[in-house]
Amino acid sequence: MSEMDAIGAAILRELSRDGRLSNIELAERVGLSPSACLRRVQDLERRGIIRGYRAVLDRTLLDGGFVAYLGVGLSHHTKAAQEAFEAAVTRAKEVRECHNVTGTVEYILRVEAADLVAFKHFHTEILGVIPFVSSITSYVVMDSPKDERA
């Protein structure tokens, strides 16, 4: 684990809020000169702490914005079964996040689809035919009053 000082934490906080900040604006917000701030950001990028920059999209304006979280259980608890499942969901465009978790299921997926019809197609024709999938529990998102994913 890398040591993080208060300035580094402030840089990460500001860039998490707005990744499009100019270096000059970021420097002002964290109390550094622009050149020192740029060196710090480049160091955070080089060390892999900052892995990239993304646009946060409003899916409701693009393709309907149907979002669900799915708990997925596997019938076999082997490395091969996990690798096969992970490869399959990596290819599925509807899966925006895949997390291997502990508990009653092996995976939690965040799935985005245009609408309920598209979600049903994903559920039955894509996820439902992956080998070793033994259970699928869906939680449809009705609203997201707090969502800080970048």
Layout of secondary structure:
Layout: H1 6-17, H2 23-30, H3 34-46, H4 59-62, E1 66-74, H5 79-91, E2 95-100, E3 107-113, H6 116-126, E4 133-140
Antiparallel strand pairs: 1-3, 1-4, 2-3
Helix pairs in contact: 1-2, 2-3
Please, could you describe this protein's structure?
The protein contains six helices and four strands, in the order H-H-H-H-E-H-E-E-H-E. With 150 residues, the chain is an alpha+beta fold. It folds into two domains: 41 residues, Winged helix-like DNA-binding domain superfamily/Winged helix DNA-binding domain (Arc Repressor Mutant, subunit A, Orthogonal Bundle); 81 residues, Alpha-Beta Plaits, CATH 3.30.70.920. Strand 2 and strand 3 form a beta hairpin. It is elongated and about 55 Å long. It starts with 5 loop residues before the first helix and ends in a 10-residue tail after the last strand. The model has no long low-confidence stretch (mean pLDDT 93).
Attribute tags:
four-stranded antiparallel β-sheet; Arc Repressor Mutant, subunit A; 150 residues; 41% helix; alpha+beta; 20% strand; Alpha-Beta Plaits
* CATH-level-4 superfamily name of the largest domain: Lrp/AsnC effector binding domain/regulation of amino acid metabolism (RAM) domain
CATH level-two architecture of the largest domain: 2-Layer Sandwich
Average pLDDT score: 93
Radius of gyration: 20 Å
CATH topology of the largest domain: Alpha-Beta Plaits
Beta-strand residue percentage = 15-25%
Distance between the termini: 22 Å
Look at the helices and sheets and give the structural class: alpha+beta
Number of strands: 4
Main beta sheet strand tally, sense and closure: 4 strands, antiparallel
Number of domains: 2
Q: What is the helix tally? A: 6
CATH class of the largest domain: Alpha Beta
Stretches with pLDDT under 50, minimum 5 residues: none
Cα shape: elongated
Written as H for each helix and E for each strand, in order along the chain, the element string is HHHHEHEEHE
